[in-house]
Design brief:
Blueprint lengths: L9 E2 L11 E6 L4 H4 L3 H11 L4 E6 L13 E5 L6 H10 L15 E5 L1 H5 L10 E3 L3 H15 L4 H9 L4 E2 L4 E5 L6 E6 L23 E2 L12
Parallel strand pairs: 2-3, 2-4, 4-5, 5-6
Antiparallel strand pairs: 1-10, 6-7, 8-9
Helix pairs in contact: 5-6
């Protein structure tokens, strides 16, 4: 599918020109463009990032992408369907990144994820994400980006600890998870030390403004539909 389909979009917002030192970011949806661009959550998070001058965000789908930064610092995924599990891993491999977070090092971006699947039950995906955002992006994104900016340029471990302080941000590597047995439920999730929050509370948007479409296109699964 041609990337020229991006030019067929009707944007309902004006993206901000990124600063020269903006954070190079990839925001991915692990499915085809027509499905991903129909997701209201994906639209809203992408637009929120694109409205920031301190973030240079590019979109990635399984069948097409915008020009991607050669050395992204952040790689985000919006996960709406459990059946996209395999596509998530395939995109990581396509970007030449280790699929498991414990194999990534200072040369790799921070891989974060959000969306209804991860908010409902993050643990099945915990081995693949450095950071999981629990709840609504309207509440989380701003604090997440600001925390990353404070830790930018520092060690990966420092960055993850800094991000773990943000309400709603779960950093799986900073917790020990035990199970009743390999095939049974979780017995406990405990932080590795006292500096890490005991609990990560899901963030819920309670504003008076409804989220709505930020882009309309005839190539969406629901062509030219305005979502609220």
């Amino acid at each position: 599918m041609s990337a020229n389909l991006f030019h067929a979009e009707r944007l309902l917002f004006t993206p901000t020109s990124p600063d020269i030192d903006a954070i190079p970011t990839i925001f991915a949806f692990p499915n085809e463009y027509g499905i991903g661009i129909t997701s209201l959550g994906y639209q809203v998070v992408w637009a929120t990032l694109a409205l920031r001058s301190d973030v240079d965000v590019r979109r990635l789908f399984t069948d097409m992408c915008e020009p991607l930064p050669p050395q992204p610092e952040l790689l985000g995924f919006s996960l709406s369907w459990e059946l996209d599990y395999g596509n998530l891993l395939a995109l990581l491999e396509r970007l030449n990144l280790p699929t498991r977070s414990n194999l990534r090092d200072e040369a790799h971006p921070i891989v974060f994820g959000g969306g209804p699947v991860l908010t409902a039950n993050p643990e099945p995906f915990a081995d693949f994400f450095d950071v999981i955002l629990l709840g609504d992006g309207e509440n989380l994104l701003g604090d997440f980006i600001e925390a990353y900016k404070e830790a930018r340029g520092k060690s990966r471990s420092h960055q993850l600890r800094q991000l773990a302080r943000v309400p709603g941000v779960y950093v799986p590597s900073l917790y020990e998870v035990t199970y009743h047995s390999p095939t049974e439920a979780i017995a406990s999730i405990t932080p590795i030390d006292s500096e890490i929050p005991d609990r990560v509370a899901k963030q819920t948007y309670r504003g008076n403004t409804l989220s709505a479409s930020t882009v309309v296109t005839r190539k969406a699964a629901w062509p030219d539909v305005y979502l609220v």
